[in-house]
Write a structure and sequence with these properties.
heterodimer, A: 306 residues, alpha/beta, Rossmann fold, Alpha-Beta Plaits, six-stranded mixed β-sheet, four-stranded antiparallel β-sheet, 11 helices, 13 strands, B: 265 residues, mainly alpha, 12 helices, 0% strand
């Protein structure tokens, strides 16, 4: 099957500033793509080009094989919750949902009401009086209520309290279990870790990693803490090994090492000393993610992970 | 065109339309209310007798003592076109550039609606509001004139109200065109009000300078009011120019909004 989202060499410039640079992205049907990056990395700009809200400076973008800027019908297959949420303040929540329902068509009203119930959306309120979190909930119901084939979520849990966050992620898991594709843009790593199949990391408008989640996690820079009964190895000896990122004597008897890749060489060196214990926290996406955002060049980090 | 979008456009204008409609009606009613005492006293022409003739012409006060001259000088020459034009400009700018500035187009345009349909529906909602206000004012004048036994041609009132409406719609379309190009709401408002006021100044003062008096033909106000519709009835040429101009501006707005990047808030 053709990819649902396909971007090739996508570029967006604003004046002299390049917000998105030669971006390649693809989303296969039925998968959840985590779109990670710090604020200002170009996530929202990319999403706006996907939805036909923004015109690419160059490169191509396809949504269900169509140009989203020319073909409005294709947007009927997409549910979207924007990061910067601006609702019509003049309407009530109920009127907002009614209006979206009319403009979109094909809304499953029973499902919509269930979403309203589960997320605790207060339909009788005026939009103007809603808190950030309550506005967000309204937008999320709007994005999901038509059971679209693709859901594009830009920082969806921003402003939600932890209970609602969890409920929303549960809803999202149910939705993806039925084969819905999701593009989840976030800087909250635990969310992405929970549901993504694949992760794209973007930095300063460029893709710095595009991997299955597990690969990314395994390739992360990992911290090891080695405690010795006797003398410590010289940190410079550790640094001489190719996987080492940093090595530091911490306590009189402890060495902390940041290491990328399989630890075989490191273990071989440490085993020559009187090693009392060795601990390493479970590698997670956070450490992987952070490794892309070190001040030293992204290219180096990228190649080491591979 | 989309009925739901049209309804939302009307909903957004409800408050403004009520306030402006009431204000224009109040103005019209006040002007009509002073007619009996003014005409009885016979002092209307003496009011302007001290003014230079050029100024009298510019303000439309040439024949203040006749019912048509009185209404022209007090309503149709300046106040009604200016106020209805302002209403059209403000509502159109707010619905087009203003909504984009506020980031409200983002969610709307992510739905399966076309930008052309959004702009067209919103323009139509402004047409409806302006037409309703113009109709109300025109009907008030016709009915009151009959009650006050003013010698006034109803066709002239309808023709003048229509001209004022077309002039306002032309400026609303200009606001839409400038929004489509991508200007911010403040710039759209400034530019469109500038054109409205410049058009009035040209129509009012250029004819006084013989060497450039032909320039008056570039003023939309001249297209609308140059043939004195209150006295002479419909002016098809001028109305056609206004309608044509409106359609061209509408087309510019629709063409320019189609493919461009929508601003973020």
């Amino acid at each position: 099957m053709a990819p649902i989202i396909y971007c090739e060499k996508l570029v967006k410039r604003f004046g002299g500033f390049t917000a998105v640079r030669d971006l390649d992205l693809s989303l296969e049907p039925g998968t959840v793509l985590g779109f990670l990056g710090p604020n200002g990395a170009g996530k929202s700009t990319t999403i706006r080009m996907l939805l036909g809200l923004s015109r690419p400076s160059s490169g191509s973008v396809r949504l269900f094989g169509e140009d989203p800027l020319r073909n409005r019908a294709v947007r009927a297959r997409v549910g979207y919750s924007p990061g910067e949420l601006r609702l019509d303040e003049r309407l009530t929540v109920a009127a907002t949902l009614r209006s979206w329902t009319r403009l979109r068509g094909g809304v499953d009203e029973a499902y919509r009401d269930r979403l309203i119930e589960r997320l605790g959306v207060q339909v009788d309120r005026h939009v103007r009086g809603l808190s950030t979190g309550n506005r967000r909930k309204l937008a999320l119901v709007g994005a999901l209520m038509s059971r679209p084939e693709l859901v594009i979520l830009d920082e969806p849990t921003n402003g939600l309290d932890p209970l609602v966050q969890d409920e929303f992620m549960a809803i999202l898991e149910e939705v993806t279990a039925t084969g819905t594709s999701v593009l989840l843009s976030s800087h909250i790593l635990s969310e992405v870790e929970r549901i993504a199949d694949r992760v794209v990391v973007i930095r300063a408008g460029e893709v710095v990693a595009d991997e299955p989640k597990d690969t990314l996690r395994r390739g992360a820079v990992q911290e090891y803490r080695a405690v010795f009964a006797g003398v410590l190895p010289d940190p410079s000896a550790v640094m001489a090994l190719s996987g080492a990122r940093s090595a530091e004597a911490w306590q009189p008897n402890e060495l902390r090492i940041e290491w990328a890749g399989p630890p075989r060489d490191l273990l071989r060196l440490l085993a020559e000393y009187d090693l009392a214990s060795l601990t390493a926290p479970e590698p997670n996406l956070e450490t992987a993610f952070m490794s892309y955002y070190r001040t030293d060049g992204t290219r180096a980090a990228k190649e080491d992970v591979r | 065109m989309n009925l739901e979008l049209l309804k939302r456009g009307l909903g957004a204008q409800r408050r403004g339309a009520l306030i402006w409609g009431a204000a224009l009606l109040f103005l019209t009613g006040t002007v009509l209310a002073v007619w009996p005492s003014m005409s009885d006293s016979g002092s209307l022409d003496s009011l302007v007798s001290g003014m230079p003739p050029e100024l009298i012409a510019a303000l439309g006060l040439e024949s203040l003592a006749s019912p048509a001259g009185f209404l022209n000088g007090n309503l149709f020459a300046l106040l009604l076109p200016l106020l209805l034009g302002a209403l059209g400009i403000m509502h159109m700018a707010s619905l087009a550039a203003g909504d984009e500035d506020a980031g409200r187009l983002e969610l709307l345009l992510a739905l399966p609606v076309s930008r052309v349909s959004v702009y067209l529906s919103r323009f139509a909602s402004v047409v409806i509001v302006l037409a309703a206000v113009a109709l109300l004012v025109g009907a008030t004048i016709v009915v009151s004139a009959a009650a006050l036994e003013m010698e006034l041609d109803s066709v002239g009132v309808i023709a003048a109200s229509t001209s004022v409406l077309l002039l306002a719609l032309f400026h609303a379309a200009l606001a839409l065109a400038l929004s489509g190009i991508g200007l911010r709401s403040g710039v759209v408002l400034g530019a469109t009000f500038g054109v409205l006021i410049l058009g009035y100044l040209i129509q009012a003062f250029v004819p006084m300078v013989a060497s450039i008096s032909d320039l008056v033909a570039i003023s939309p106000w001249h297209w609308a009011l140059g043939e004195a519709p209150l006295e002479n009835g419909f002016d098809l040429g001028g109305s056609a120019l206004l309608i044509l101009g409106t359609l061209v501006l509408l087309a510019v707005g629709l063409a320019t909004i189609r493919g461009r990047t929508i601003r973020t808030a």
